[in-house]
Amino acid sequence: MTSTSTAFDVDAFGRRHIGTTPRDHEWMLAALGYDTLDALMDAAVPSAIRMHEVLDSAIPDAATEREALAELRALADANTVRTSMIGLGYSGTITPAVIQRNVLENPSWYTAYTPYQPEISQGRLEALINFQTMVTDLTGLDTANASMLDEGTAVVEGMLLARRASKAKTNRFVVDADALPQTHALLVSRAEAVGVELVVADLDETTDVAELGDHFGLFVQYPGASGRVWDPASVIAASKAQGALAVVAADLLALALITSPGELGADVAVGTSQRFGVPMGFGGPHAGYMAVRKGLERQLPGRLVGVSQDAAGHAAYRLSLQAREQHIRREKATSNICTAQVLLAVMASMYAVYHGPRGIRHIATRAAGHARLLAGWLEDAGLELVHDAYFDTIRVRVPGTAAEVVDRARELGIHLWQADDSTVQVAVDETTTASDLHTVARAFGGPDSRDFGWVAPLPTALPETLRRTTPYLEHPVFNTHQSETQMMRYLKTLADRDYALDRGMIPLGSCTMKLNAATEMQAVTWPEFANLHPFAPEADVVGSLGLVEQLESWLAEVTGYDTVSLQPNAGSQGELAGLLAIRGYHLANGDIERDVCLIPSSAHGTNAASAVLAGMRVVVVACDELGNVDLDDLRAKIAANAEHIAALMITYPSTHGVYEHDVKDITRAVHDAGGQVYIDGANLNALLGFARFGDVGGDVSHLNLHKTFCIPHGGGGPGVGPVAAKAHLAPFLPGHPMAQRTSHAGGVEHGGGPVSAAPYGSPSILPISWAYVRMMGAEGLKQATATAVLAANYVATRLRDHFPVLYTGENGLVAHECILDLRPLTAETGVTVDDVAKRLIDYGFHAPTMSFPVAGTLMVEPTESEDLAELDRFVEAMIQIRAEADAVGRGEWPAEDNPLRGAPHTAESVIAGEWTHPYTREQAVYPVHSLVRNKYWAPVRRIDQAYGDRNLVCACPPIEAFA
């Protein structure tokens, strides 16, 4: 592999994905003192970990974009899309075209990152506060977060919240027997690891709570999985009276018509927003939600958007209460939720904005009326309903013939759900037509023809005592944008307030913000992938299962493992799944005392949080001055915990961006002590094609498909965090009771408990990573790795005379990212890492990762997708910022009034009023001449984070706040 001979074919996708050219490589390599990419990689990657050539590779040679799309089309055609009336938490929905085109298919929305730089994230932060307001309005509770991963994991988080907030001295949690089956499976899986005892109970208005015994929490499904609607208020009150917290999983659309959980006395409401315009997608991604009553807002897991003010006193959005987050609290964290489902939460919130309260109520009323109409037709045919009160789902008694009814419906193009041998469930949704209802009635033995024409749905079958009387969605944002023109302009306005990859480089270390190619994205909205129910019969989802199996096999090969589960729908959940597999392995071997997880001090916070949620104790291992795991300290910690070592979690290359030469010694030491090795795959973009986790001693790893494998970050989600493992851990990887198949890559079965609500996590976005691997091929993946390492070392080399590069490996090289140490600069000039980050906005950049893994530093990861001109633009911006800081240090500008401390500068700040600063307007907003025609203007000035935490506002503020 040389910089001169590796030229991609004109039709090859790799030359589009990789931003620098072979000629650029010559220039960049010369700056580093190397002749070829081969020579650079030989010097950077330790020879001890270099992989051998894979014979009989499962990864085919690189396909062109057209060829890959043709293969995806063949996989899609192998699926059969029927009308789904299964329900169970997944409903047909209509994505308004204006939202599909302007959000889901718009790189301004899908290529943005988590809004940790709020000044350049005001658009998606407003969309998320709309989401929070929508959820609080409908649930009748005080505060909602900015989304969860799915409904099942949201229920688990509700259980954990109840345990830490309740004063009850018990580990018992009462679970509604009418819970969704996938939710119940998740609760069983997650409760066992943290010592929670589940008590399943048939709940109704007559339940004697005293007979349930002491419990810290109560969980109610509302409406039930069976469709049953009942009033749980008395049960909730009795449970709370004995010290428990009430968690209610509520259907957001049903809440347009039935009494809200808050009015029923719930402390916590959870659920999914999928049916608000987000396709079923064979199970995800979908934005779960969580809302809490007043007093519990600091217990909320995940992200919370709030309102603060900027330096000019104007209202501005930002993430609130960040001290709650797992990356700060580490082993003291109460949740390991990291990736949210921001893109899907934006879609759901815009569905509410577009339809408004009247539209939402109309959709809910029509669905409920159609359910009532179908029930009437079935009762006319002599059939009996299981429940008389329901919203959109009915259960019908068909003694001994349930399977026949479901089979007949499938032949007629509709999926129903067989609850048991004598019961069939039918769920109506937004997409259901009167013709669909007639077809369902035929499947139950009704007449083949019916003179119904246009049929007005009947009144709902909801109890009068549970009819909703309180208003919702009253804020102007939900009552203004109901024409497509208004909606299109609103979405454009919000997008223009953000900085995403479609504007420029986002050099966030540890985040790998690379190209999300349009061809990779193309199949996501194909109905053959988007409109599948996750529990559809195996025969109807052959194409999606084939795609899953191929991707599993490719990921197993590139990581050196034997099997892969694609179920975890975030990197944090992949971590948890891997640690639960290790825990299950030790328990199966009778090693019940093994509960210590060794974690380096440099690790990402989710590592420690995941270990705690897997029932392990965290012991921190020191790092040396080069950023490597301190081998002596590791051996000392192993010796001190000799019989208790369960696992070591390390990141490779290290969180410091360095290839550790001693990684095999590290893994060997843990294995010799009887432990297992978990290698965090966050930095896999520095390894693909050169080394494999399984070859250096890893037993299990999670991968980030939203990093290395090109799934877009979507403003902070979706993510996919598959877990890959050696064969001995395969029986303990996530299984699922509703999965169409039990076998996975390597021909093995996964028998562990689920970690996500759907069997394959977020399969509707897996075509993205499938297409990336298919179009790059093994050699293209290797080329991408080498180019990413080249880009990082080029940036480090050009900047090291201005900012010390904190950690390097042998030969002074870094891996795919470098850490710039700003602490000396701060000591000399008073300019802080915050000042530099905000000043970069004035130069047209998103800042690198701030103060992670070391306070007072910037971690830069340019990726392979950026071109040389963009790399140079960033380098030159950083050099000029250094010069500005030096000017402050020399006293040319006051420490409290200079371009860095005043950054970012808005258009208003340099136009309105008298200019009193010691630097010029031009220096403020046009520090380099190229910005004159290509300026990104921050919509707000620097935001006061502390003010927002002291004055917590987490719902849509009145319009006057922005006057």
UniProtKB/TrEMBL annotation:
The protein's enzyme class: oxidoreductase
The reaction(s) this protein catalyses: N(6)-[(R)-lipoyl]-L-lysyl-[glycine-cleavage complex H protein] + glycine + H(+) = N(6)-[(R)-S(8)-aminomethyldihydrolipoyl]-L-lysyl-[glycine-cleavage complex H protein] + CO2
Pfam families found in the cross-reference section: GcvP2_C, GDC-P
Span of domain Glycine cleavage system P-protein N-terminal: 15-443, 462-736
Keyword Oxidoreductase: yes
Limits of the Glycine dehydrogenase C-terminal domain: 784-905
E.C. number: 1.4.4.2
Keyword terms, alphabetized: Oxidoreductase, Pyridoxal phosphate
Gene3D superfamilies cross-referenced by the UniProt entry: Aspartate Aminotransferase, domain 1 (3.90.1150.10), Type I PLP-dependent aspartate aminotransferase-like (Major domain) (3.40.640.10)
Family annotation (SUPFAM superfamilies): PLP-dependent transferases
List of residues that carry N6-(pyridoxal phosphate)lysine: K707
Cofactor: pyridoxal 5'-phosphate
Coiled-coil zones: none
Job description of the protein: The glycine cleavage system catalyzes the degradation of glycine. The P protein binds the alpha-amino group of glycine through its pyridoxal phosphate cofactor; CO(2) is released and the remaining methylamine moiety is then transferred to the lipoamide cofactor of the H protein.
Record's subunit section: The glycine cleavage system is composed of four proteins: P, T, L and H.
Family, per entry: Belongs to the GcvP family.
Name of the protein: Glycine dehydrogenase (decarboxylating)
Annotated organism of origin: Agromyces marinus
